[in-house]
């Protein structure tokens, strides 16, 4: 089960600066170790905990003291909805329960958080001086842009883009895969505003031998080693050049929450969200597949050919995940809903399929024996999720039911009802979402 940390809100009320330090680690100072709490933070901490932290110098930044985790009130991550389920506090990872993804456009505070390292501290981020540098062996020159340069020199675009972690659904794999045990909520679709990555890359000049771009962000490695990147992934040039590939500074018309990449990030819809670099400070145009942190080995890769569950697969037989597969969510009602016999049950949710669109969504109330077609809306733009709805008015008698939803993409590929291909790291689980419904007298 997911751990839910509670009590940090008290610390936020008492000492927001300390709470920030705890969650985000501290800024780098050349004369002190990174990733550990500063003396001032430790003193303040002792006051809140009701006793000096004797070994406090060893207490890693970004970890929440267990002594704060005993309150009955919910703990909210900064800028995020208190009902996100926190899977991990170091680094912070939190998913959105399915019924809270009911909005057509995911509100910023409900977008999941997936961090590989410690985000930059909010007080250290100045949007007026933030710069993005573009360089690399296949860049014709190297250029730096302030946020203001990006806003004034390039045309602004807004797209609704589905972001889903490649590991969403991992918790169901058997044998289990290591990593965040996401259930279904590492996904969202918001309206992102920024400039086209293509326009900026072309302003710098893309060499004819360019094959990939890679990103670097301002977050720091958990070890505190400034030489190490928590993550540095990228996409092929063809993906970088798509109209919808954005360097974004706004979500739903507002600044991006700090945990989601404030003040600037990449957004690539339809691909594993690990490609959408947060706290974006540098892009490299590469003459080969980018080899940054978590691009190589087994990270964000699946076996090129299906394998038996539990086997180990050699690195050279693993392929980089590109397009995400067809998938859907039931966002209303919440699983566990109870209705009276004879009462109609409205259903709704979203469906998405990487760069493809959705052809149809069906639902079943008899564990997949029969399926009925749902009403389906078109996407707002390419790579936006699509909304579906239906009404069940014929539960035959009282008892326990499950509602299953199944989407089919524009190539005719449908979601599997059981788990799809097992893979060592537990990516790409796109099995049908199901909810429990009880019909009573
Ligand atoms: N700089 C940076 N960018 C990052 C990450 C990160 O840890 N650091 N995590 C990646 C992963 S694995 C995912 S799934 C998405 C999550 O985006 P979100 O936290 O805004 O939902 O960001 C990606 N971009
Ligand atoms: Mo991810």
Give a structural overview:
- With 441 residues, the chain is mainly beta.
- The chain has 3 domains: 1-76, no CATH class; 122-320, Oxidoreductase, molybdopterin-binding domain (Sulfite Oxidase, Chain A, domain 2, Alpha-Beta Complex); 327-440, Immunoglobulin-like (Sandwich).
- The protein is built from 6 helices and 24 strands.
- Strands 5-4-13-8-9 form a 5-stranded mixed beta sheet. Strands 6, 7, 10, 11 and 12 form a 5-stranded antiparallel beta sheet that branches.
- A hairpin with a 7-residue loop joins strand 4 and strand 5 (143-146).
- Mean pLDDT is 90; it is low at 1-7 and 25-33.
- The structure holds the ligand Nc1nc2c(c(=O)[nH]1)N[C@H]1C(S)=C(S)[C@@H](COP(=O)(O)O)O[C@H]1N2 and molybdenum atom.
Q: How would you summarize the topology of this molecule?
A:
Layout: H1 8-14, H2 16-24, H3 39-49, E1 85-89, E2 92-95, E3 113-114, E4 131-135, E5 143-146, H4 147-153, E6 156-164, E7 187-196, H5 197-204, E8 212-217, E9 234-236, H6 237-240, E10 246-251, E11 254-255, E12 265-267, E13 280-286, E14 301-303, E15 318-320, E16 327-332, E17 337-340, E18 345-352, E19 358-364, E20 372-373, E21 375-376, E22 386-392, E23 399-409, E24 433-440
Parallel strand pairs: 4-13, 17-24
Antiparallel strand pairs: 1-2, 2-3, 4-5, 6-7, 7-10, 8-9, 8-13, 10-11, 10-12, 14-15, 16-18, 18-22, 19-20, 19-23, 21-22, 23-24
Bound molecules: ligand MTE and molybdenum atom.
């Amino acid at each position: 089960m997911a751990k839910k940390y509670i009590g940090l809100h008290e610390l936020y009320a008492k000492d927001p600066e300390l709470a920030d330090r705890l969650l985000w680690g501290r800024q780098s100072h050349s004369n002190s170790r990174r990733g550990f709490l500063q003396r001032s933070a430790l003193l303040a901490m002792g006051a809140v905990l009701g006793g000096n932290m004797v070994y406090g110098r060893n207490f890693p930044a970004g970890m929440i003291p267990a002594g704060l985790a005993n309150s009955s009130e919910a703990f909210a991550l900064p800028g995020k909805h208190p009902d996100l389920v926190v899977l991990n506090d170091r680094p912070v990872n939190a998913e959105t329960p399915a019924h809270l993804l009911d909005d057509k456009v995911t509100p910023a505070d409900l977008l999941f958080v997936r961090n590989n390292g410690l985000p930059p501290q909010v007080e250290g981020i100045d949007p007026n001086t933030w710069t993005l540098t573009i360089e690399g062996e296949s860049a014709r020159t190297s250029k730096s842009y302030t946020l203001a340069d990006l806003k004034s020199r390039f045309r602004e675009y807004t797209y609704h883009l589905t972001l889903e972690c490649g590991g969403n659904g991992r918790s169901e794999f058997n044998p289990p895969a290591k990593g965040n045990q996401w259930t279904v909520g590492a996904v969202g679709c918001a309206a992102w505003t920024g400039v086209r990555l293509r326009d900026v890359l072309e302003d710098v000049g893309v060499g004819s031998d360019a094959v990939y771009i890679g990103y670097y962000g301002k977050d720091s490695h958990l070890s505190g080693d400034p030489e190490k990147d928590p993550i540095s992934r990228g996409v092929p040039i063809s993906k970088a050049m798509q109209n919808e590939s954005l360097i974004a500074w706004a979500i739903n018309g507002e600044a991006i929450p700090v945990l989601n990449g404030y003040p600037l990030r990449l957004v690539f819809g339809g691909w594993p969200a690990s490609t959408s670099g947060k706290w974006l400070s540098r892009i490299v145009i590469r003459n080969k597949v980018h080899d940054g942190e978590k691009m190589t080995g087994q990270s964000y890769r699946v076996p090129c050919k299906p394998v038996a569950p539990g086997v180990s697969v050699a690195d050279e037989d693993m392929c980089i995940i590109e397009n995400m597969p067809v998938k859907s969510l039931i966002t209303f009602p919440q699983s566990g809903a109870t209705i009276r016999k004879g009462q109609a049950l409205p259903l709704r949710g979203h469906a998405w399929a990487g760069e493809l669109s959705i052809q149809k969504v069906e639902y079943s109330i008899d564990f997949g024996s029969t399926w009925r077609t749902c009403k389906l809306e078109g996407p707002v733009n390419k790579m936006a999720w699509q909304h579906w709805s239906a009404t069940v008015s014929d539960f035959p008698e009282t008892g326990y039911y499950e509602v299953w939803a199944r989407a089919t993409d524009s190539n005719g590929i449908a979601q599997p009802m059981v788990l799809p291909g097992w893979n060592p790291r537990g990516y790409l689980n796109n099995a049908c979402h199901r909810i429990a419904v009880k019909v009573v007298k």
